Amino acid sequence: MKMSNKEVLKRLANAVQAETPNVLENVLARAAQTEGAVTMTTETYTPANAPVVLPETMQENKAVSFKPRWRRLALAAAAVLVIAFGVFFNQMYFSPMATVSFDVNPSIELKVSRSEKVLSATALNADAGVILDGMNLKNVDLNVAVKALIGSMVQNGYVDEAKNSVLITVESGNSQKGQELQQKLSKEVDEMLNTHSLHGSILSQQVDTGDAELAKLADTYGISRGKAALVSLLVEKDPLITLEQAAALSVHEINLLLDSKKTDLQSVSETGKASTSGYIGQEAALAAALNHAGVAASDIVRQKIELDYDDGRMVYEVDFNTAWVEFEYEIDAVNGSVVKFEREGEAPPQNSQPEQPVSSTPSSANSASSSSKEAPPANSTGQISKQAALDIAFAHAGVASSSASRTKVKLDHEDGRLVYEIEFEVGRTEYDYEIDAINGSILKAETDYDD
Amino acid sequence: MVFLMSVPVETPALKRSNTELENFISRIANGEQEAFEALYAEIQAAVFGFALSILKNRQDAEDVMQDSFLKIYHAAAGYRPQGKPMAWIFTIVRNEALQRIRAASRTDALPEENHLAAVPCHTQQTINRVVLETALQALTDEERQIVFLHALSGLKHREVSEVLKISLSTELSKYHRALAKMKKQIQGGGPDENE
Predict the structure, then answer these.
(1) How many CB atoms lie within 10 A of CB A380?
(2) Mutation for testing the A interface, residue in B10, B43, B177 having most A CBs under 10 Å
(3) Residue B148: which pLDDT band, with cuts at 50, 70 and 90?
(4) pLDDT digits over A95-150, tens only?
(5) Comparing A190-194, A262-266, B150-154, which segment has the lowest mean pLDDT?
């Protein structure tokens, strides 16, 4: 299995996170002991006025000297009572047959009655608020409501040719009915998009009301349960992306990533295909990488291109080899700029060089290891000068030496070979190079963006 | 219908900005438990991981993790905001860990045998675990600490070199060497490949 540096670090982080013990309780307890104060009690709560599930830490809070939160919680408790009663009332008089949610960017939840009329429409995020603004969907036929919602999303630019994914999630006590609803709605949304000359990628699924994991996930990240299900699928397929990152992506981005990794969607049905027209496309990404690397397409022995998500943006991961060198690139999927690149290996030297003696203190007079004197170019030991190495690095990075700061050059010997280790910064970018001290070829090149 | 207060399902990699972290610290100094809990949630893996990278065994790391958080709680009042809260935190962890090593130096109880036993069958987790064990076994002390700091906190090279009190160029070369070693061991074969 081939791993990039990034992958190694992320897997390490995941492994650590999985093993991190929970010592919060102990710490709080010890903190209280050292202070000797007991100001926090749970006496203000009686079962009567606290029909809420308190987080564990609150209940353990008897001996900690932090300021009391009881006031805030008492208010929350009162609010919950009101809501609980309201829901109870509601449930009595309007029992929904199913809950249908739509996720694009906007996340909208509809409760639907047995007669397929909309009982309620809730905006689960700010974008949804924009869509639902001024719309009264109560008692409206589901079909009509869906048309109105999709139409509004198109009008407000949430769905277009480049971002064409819509997620429909149905939650119903009756899975047969749920299935029917799922298929019907898919078709309707598809048709609706067609009338706007759009070809949608409609994802649809059913979720289980009783799925506590899913509910917790949805709650934590403030997303709908439908989206949470999709997010889980993505995170399972791609261990390098965290739940938090995935939850912040749009449905279209998640769809593209799942697509790119050829994920078996399992319980999610899809009609249509996720559009990549918002991005430059794999061809263009490869071309950008080749261009930067100075490699011709005909020299490529192996390549792999995948859409991925890193550091807050969608990128193409472009990996390719020539006969001697391995390249790993990340190309911004929207504007084609090079985000990251790494190369390893070197082409065999053009001229035949005798094997240089492997010693860290070369006996020949001219090779200065870390002195600040500049050695003359191409001296008698066949070693290039520091300045020459620097020039190679600057040229490769495409920067002028005058714009580089904190420049460091060190002659080192690694793996039986003399190399110049070069670092410099331009603005907020750190560059790292290893240049072969004999033939000037670039052994390693890394760019680190400081954000 | 019950109103649940959300508890994070998984601790994300550090996502809070430095400003938010410093805000937590000053609120902790004021005795606000919420802020302490929020800070804990955010950095718990980073603290544990870094302690583990120094001490190499999980029990010691857990103890130092506790000591560090206690120290953070007490020292919050004295923290002067300079835009580098993680450096402050990691320095606390480092000091606590080194203290522990000094205290235990007689008994030399360091390495632990906690190989890949009892790992749940999910493939991705197994691979992750391999990466962790490789880091614990195949790297020198400094290499290991460097790698853990990068993985867990996203600190930049310069900041890592400041926490560990080494020069930037040393940090950079050890970082690359450590990753190369790890990749070689993970991908290539067993331990004891010639370095």
Answers:
(1) 10
(2) B10
(3) very high
(4) 678 889 999 989 999 998 888 888 889 888 888 888 888 888 888 889 899 999 99
(5) A262-266
Q: Which residues, at least 6 apart from A402, have a Cβ–Cβ distance to it below 8 Å?
A: none
Which residue is listed with tokens 């007079």? Answer: A365
Residues A122 and A109: beta-carbon distance below 8 Å? yes
Interface of A with B in 205-234 (CB under 8 A): 216-217, 219-220
Tokens of A13: 């982080």
Q: How confident is the model at residue A15 (pLDDT cuts 50, 70, 90)?
A: very high
Distance from CA of A245 to the nearest CA of B (A): 9
Question: Count of residues for chain B?
Answer: 195
pLDDT higher than 70, residue A72 = no
**Above 90 in pLDDT, residue B111?**
no
Q: How far apart are CA A381 and CA A365, in angstroms?
A: 9
Alpha helices in B8-140 (DSSP H): 18-29, 33-55, 58-75, 85-104, 123-138
Cα-Cα end-to-end distance for chain A: 30
Residues of chain A found within 8 Å of residue B42, distances taken between Cβ atoms = none
User: For residues A446 and B8, which has the higher predicted lDDT (pLDDT)?
Assistant: A446
d(CA B93, CA B23): 20
Element (H, E) at A195: helix A175-195
3-state secondary structure of A344: strand
Interchain contact, B151 vs A31, CB within 8 Å: no
Pick the closest to residue A249 from A274, A272, A273, A271 (CA basis). A274
What is the three-class DSSP state of A411?
Answer: strand
Assigned token pair, B153: 């906190």
Whether the CB-CB separation of A170 and A208 falls below 8 Å is answered with: no
pTM of the complete model beyond 0.80: no
